[in-house]
Design a protein that fits this description.
By secondary structure, the chain is mostly helical. It is built from 5 helices and no strands.
Length: about 120
């Protein structure tokens, strides 16, 4: 049986967000510095391949981290956004990244739990 593409994408997203959460937890500097490292981990995830509720949350996080126009030619939108961001805002975004990781993992675990329940007669 071939693995469903959306399931494969969720596994990939889970791996990327695991590293993002790790960077948020142990990265050097303030939350803005750690958000930069976390962004580098999760930004390769293609939101268009995610389930709709996960996609909405991913898109919100991405938008919050890239909403400012570049200040200088060498800067990215991420640089410009983080430069102007308050730490309190960064903490809110970091929390949403962690919560998104939890939601992805819940989706990955639910079919496995259903299979386990059927095997032991708890359907």
């Amino acid at each position: 049986m071939a693995m469903d593409k959306s399931y494969s994408q969720l596994i990939y997203a889970s791996e990327k967000f695991s590293m993002a959460v790790y960077r948020l937890a142990i990265g050097p500097g303030d939350v803005r510095s750690r958000l930069r490292e976390a962004f580098d981990e999760f930004h390769p995830v293609q939101s268009s391949l995610l389930p709709e509720d996960i996609k909405k949350e991913y898109d919100w996080i991405f938008e919050q981290l890239t909403k400012r126009e570049r200040r200088f030619e060498r800067d990215s939108r991420l640089d410009a956004t983080l430069y102007r961001m308050r730490n309190s805002t960064g903490v809110k975004i970091a929390k949403r990244i962690v919560e998104l990781k939890w939601r992805i993992d819940e989706l990955l675990e639910s079919p496995l739990n259903r299979q386990k329940w059927v095997r032991i007669g708890c359907h």
